[in-house]
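Hypothesis: this fold can be encoded by more than one sequence.
Test: take the structure tokens below, design a sequence, compare later.
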């Protein structure tokens, strides 16, 4: 990843809410945010929208009346 997102996220929280990162639990949740971003980056280029229908669309097709 190009840069560590935690300091910019902490600054965004402060600017938008006027609240400093409140406690250790808040900092731990930002660590989870970093890991989540890395997981999404690892998937970049591997997912294709048209690979298969969404589960909702698949359920609609499965329950459709014949000939509809």
């Amino acid at each position: 990843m190009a840069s560590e997102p935690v300091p910019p996220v902490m600054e965004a929280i402060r600017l938008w809410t006027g609240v400093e990162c409140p406690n250790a639990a808040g900092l731990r949740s930002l660590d989870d945010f970093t890991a989540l971003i890395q997981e999404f980056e690892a998937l970049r280029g591997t997912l294709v929208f048209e690979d298969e229908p969404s589960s909702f669309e698949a359920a609609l097709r499965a329950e459709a009346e014949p000939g509809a």
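The chain has a mean pLDDT of 77. The two ends are 48 Å apart (CA to CA).
Hypothesis status: open.
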